[in-house]
Specification:
The chain is of the alpha+beta class and 73 residues long. The chain has a single domain (5-72), classed as Pemi-like Protein 1, Chain: D (Ribbon), CATH 2.10.260.10. The chain has 3 helices and 4 strands.
Amino acid sequence: MNTVIRKIGNSEGVILPKDLLQSLNLKAGDSVVVSQDKDGIVLRKAGDKFEEQMAAAREIMDRYKVALQKLAE
């Protein structure tokens, strides 16, 4: 599935097709967590705080992987 980044007011965003939103049980107004991994962008429905905290921890661990490896030695 391809989509385009569009100008929305003073921001930019991606329009997600209705079929995709329905299959993921998402609707307008739902909160999502956006993170980045080695393959690209990950978009998840915001659930409990634990999942959000784990996503943030993974992002930090990926960003500082080398430093964390050196500290572990």
